[in-house]
Amino acid sequence: MEKLSMAAALFCALVLAALAAAAGGEAAVVEHTFVVHEMNQTHLCNTTKIYVVNGQLPGPTIDVTDGDTVVVHVVNRLPHGLTIHWHGVRQIMSCWSDGAGFVTECPIPPGGEHVYRFNVTGQVGTLWWHAHVTCLRATVAGAFIIRPKAGKYPFPTPAKDVPIIIGEWWELDLVELDRRMHDGNFDDNPLSATINGKLGDLSNCSGKPEESFVLDVVRGETYLLRIVNTALFSEYYFKVAGHTFTVVGADGYYLTPYKTDMVSVAPGEAIDVLMAADAPPAHYHMVALANQPPEPDPQIPGFVSRGLVRYAGSSRNKTNNGLPVPTPLMPSQHNTMPSYYFHSNLTGLAHPDRHRVPMHVDERLFFALGLGSICRGTNKTCERGRSPETIVVATMNNVSFRHPTNASLLERYYDGRTSGLYTEDLPDHPPHPYNYTDRALIPPGPMEKALEPTFKATKLRRFRYNTSVEIIFQSTALLQSDSNPMHLHGYDFFVLATGLGNYNPKTDPDKFNYHNPQLRNTVQVPRTGWAAVRFVTDNPGMWYLHCHFEFHIIMGMATAFIVENGPTPETSLPPPPPEFKRCGSNGLTKP
Q: Which residues form the signal peptide (predicted)?
């Protein structure tokens, strides 16, 4: 990769600063210090060691305005390495600060420190941040709020905005959970869902209900709920009894207002909704319920957390007349169709002068998302069909991504030292087309066994600068029937359409929304369905693409996109900033 001089890097920084200033408003530098450490927390009669930032669960909220520069000093007091990823931040010309472990940097070592510095311009709404090494994001995570300049929303200004962080409570140590999944053991499950770190009163210890998250409201006011799914394993349905929502944004962009009584939020997604406190003053339950497909394992336990909306001046005994607090009626745990309809009904808030959908396509990719298997040990042949001789892996076009463990893809690419680390031949299409959504492929059988064999490799895809790319993500039924929340770092893509069954290249393009599609960094590819997205490669660097189910990441449903430099200094990735720390021989950053 051609390197830029420090003068050119300074020029790029000045250009970005000028763009932020030209956009209007006074930009600020917002600084935070994140101390990542262990602490004990007791739930369900057991004390568990967890990993947190600054003693908080969820972690601290970063609150900035469009155009600001963010500086975060991370101090790692854990006994193992980690990185922090700024999920959904475009990182224009700042790929070095993306925080994707072994993709854009090596982990911060125990006792080490690192500084992330980046600008946020052109995005407004809710994003989030999280650890990006092992399973630590289950507790090392928090909201990232970007406010509009001058506080001007395209909807009435809410009385208050409240992050609603939906997560999971794991009694198993998260580092041990990661180790087990890397060994091919995927039998562990969380004990409960959480809302803002609280298990809720449906969980109890010795008959005493767990603490619930409580949202205090005033009748007649409207509240902006910033709902983020930080869970490792599940999509969640979210409802509040007696109330409805107006969806107004997602993933840092405005949406056309959409009224609903339930929000469906997949891992990695952030959904902004307005909730009017217009019910009779009382207490009302909010519920977050995980949904899982019924196949292949209908016995997966239900994960649920219950919180409370509490009106000012109300008393449970007085205002509810001694009756139980209303609880919303939730869908079946195994009914995934409400998620499909919710996501399909969302559209972007159209802006004629910006966020135009690229109508010309330079490169078309079709990614089949499924499972496969590799033989254990050094065996070249083995029995298939979920045999003990195999390890089940996740694939894109029958390639299971082998994550580096001692080098940063970006650093080696920038230095031109890529030999033996990766290749750039990720297939554009599956090697053998088949009926991707045939439910007969879920249990082991003759057809499934023929498609199951795969391999591990670090295969990437390279794009020239300013290439218009279309990707069809196809969820398959091969050994499973999960949905797939696909997240692309460093970019937002237009979600042109989603559908059920196999994508039809002759008829399904007629369904594409070119007028006001959603602009998202994470697209929920439906269970045994498909999603069509389009974007332009205008941000050079090394960008991680992966499913946001943690087990799918570890199993290999991932890759990285290389985007080449453009023709000018301002369209080229600057050199690493002074605070960037390179990888050492042990796979951690150097002191």
A: 1-27
